[in-house]
Amino acid sequence: MRRERFFITMLSAFLMLLFAVFALLLLERGTELGLSMVERKMKLRAELELDKTRDEIETELNEEIVQKAGEIFDEVLAQTPGYDPSTEALAEGKYLSLLGAYVKNRFSDPERALSESVNRINGREANTVSIGGDGVRKVRLEDPDSIRLNIKTDAGGHITDSYLENVKLILYRDFKEAARQSCSILLKVPEARFYSANDIIFDHSMLAVKGIYFTGRTSSVVGNVYAGTHEISEFRQADARYGEREIFGGINVLSTQLGVEADTVLTEGDINVRDSFVMFGLDSAEVKLYAHAINRLDGFGSRNNVIVKGEQILDPGDEGYKSLVSSIKQGLSGLSGLSDYYDSDNDASYKGTYRKILSNYDVIISGDFKGAIVTSGNVIIEADSSVEGIIIAGDRIYARGNNSIVSDSDIIRVIVDEELIDEKALDPESLNDEFRISHYLKDYIGGIRLKGIKNN
Questions:
Q1: How far is CA 46 from CA 23, 127, 150, 165, in A?
Q2: Rounded to whole angstroms, how far apart are CA atoms 408 and 255?
Q3: Any idea what DSSP says for residue 307?
Q4: What are the two backbone dihedrals, phi and then psi, of residue 319, each rounded to the nearest 5 degrees?
Q5: How much is the average pLDDT of 3-29?
Q6: Helix axes 2-78, 110-126, angle to 10 degrees
Q7: Under the phi-then-psi rule, with left for phi > 0, alpha for psi from -120 to 50, and beta for the rest, what region is 138?
Q8: Quick check: helix, strand or coil at residue 361?
Q9: Hey, which residues does 279 pair with through a beta bridge?
Q10: What is the mean pLDDT of the segment spanning 88-107?
């Protein structure tokens, strides 16, 4: 018995010793794992901080470029005469040439430019109280002599977004390296727009979401044309005489003659022609015509009463057509925001060059009109009236005969640019003047690229 007790005692002591050794090993391993997790967490935090520093450097350098771009823009704009396509191209070229020269000069010594930015960031950090921080923080450039400025250019040789390459950053905590990174710094070239425009919409003379209807005597249209469709539930008995069938809306012609000079005539519906002679395009200015179908209805019998000078695309469905329709609909997307009736001719405070009508009601034009008509309703152009500028209707456009309708994108640009000047001059109290602000054309045409510097 004594021997058995001795054996049990020795076995217990051995097991306790073994357990103690195992516990110590677990404790040591746990400590190592804990320290490893802390180190990984600190390293990850340091890497994120270095990412943030890189972003701060890029932001700071690009803010300098934007400021200089604004100065160059103002200088070039002051030397730019009235609008025409070649003038705008020349102005943009001059702007990019001057901005390119600035970027090349500013970053001809990339080490100096980056060091200045890094030192400013370090200075801001030094003046920041950090609660629970990890010690003194400082960022340094490694191997600054290897940094290179890589200027990118377009086909015309003008500067585009460029880079400072081979940039190496090191983050120190309490004079110990915490993280390092090799990266490139993007130098963005702000886009300059010397004239406001939605290039697709502004080239149109007529845009009607639910169709266009011509009647009466001979009319002419110069400028692109868009006509949408509408549901059968919105069919109007008065429109039945135009010959609509199956697809309602589109372009419907019941006038004696109609001539359309345009780059594009696009309807998502049919072109219905009754008792009319219609010519789309000219020998010297061919048109691209998109339509579901062209229906030659009675009136001229066997005579060819619809002539298309250019490309005729029936029942279109290619990507080019879809892209064009999408762009047009983006331009028309602001019509739902119209909430009242505004005619600049009735506004004594209006100082603009051209007339504008913005309405959520039907608009009737009697006499000659020069400017912009934008409504969520219908536009009725009475006989013997002419329109120069643009007509946009959320419903239909009716041209009653002997009408001359001519697009003029310059008129629309002038209206929008004058609105920008007016808006910029508003005092803080006037910014709350809903009546005034609601009568800016620019707010109801989607996709306008406004005059000025656009920081991408």
A1: 34, 19, 28, 22
A2: 24
A3: E
A4: -65, -35
A5: 62
A6: 120
A7: beta
A8: coil
A9: 259, 307
A10: 94
CB 452 within 8 A of CB 371: no
Mean pLDDT (whole number) for 439-443:
92
Structural element, H or E, at residue 162: strand 159-173
List the beta bridge partners of residue 359.
341, 375
Nearest by Cα to 255 from 221, 205, 222, 225: 221
Of 259, 309, 312, 257, nearest in space to 285 by CA? 309
- The backbone torsions φ and ψ at residue 336, rounded to the nearest 5 degrees and listed phi first, read -65, -15
Which DSSP helix (H) or strand (E) runs through 225? strand 224-227
196 pLDDT tier (thresholds 50, 70, 90): confident
> Terminus-to-terminus CA distance in the chain, angstroms?
92
Half-sphere exposure of 455 (CA within 13 A, CB side): 12
Task: Locate 104 and state its tokens.
Answer: 């090349």
Residue whose token pair is 């727009």: 193
| Residue pair 393/230 in contact by the 8 Å Cβ criterion | no
Distance CA 402, CA 61 (A): 59
Say which residue the tokens 């994120």 belong to: 48
Nearest to 380 by CA among 235, 201, 230, 238: 238
Alpha helices in 107-143 (DSSP H): 110-126
Overall residue count recorded for the chain in this entry: 456
- The structure tokens listed for 335 are 């019509």
Secondary structure (H, E, C), 377-406? CCEEECCCCEEEEEEEECCCEEECCCCEEE
pLDDT at position 426 over 60: yes
Q: How far apart are CA 109 and CA 68, in angstroms?
A: 18
Read off the pLDDT of each residue in 13-29 and give the average, rounded to a whole number. 62
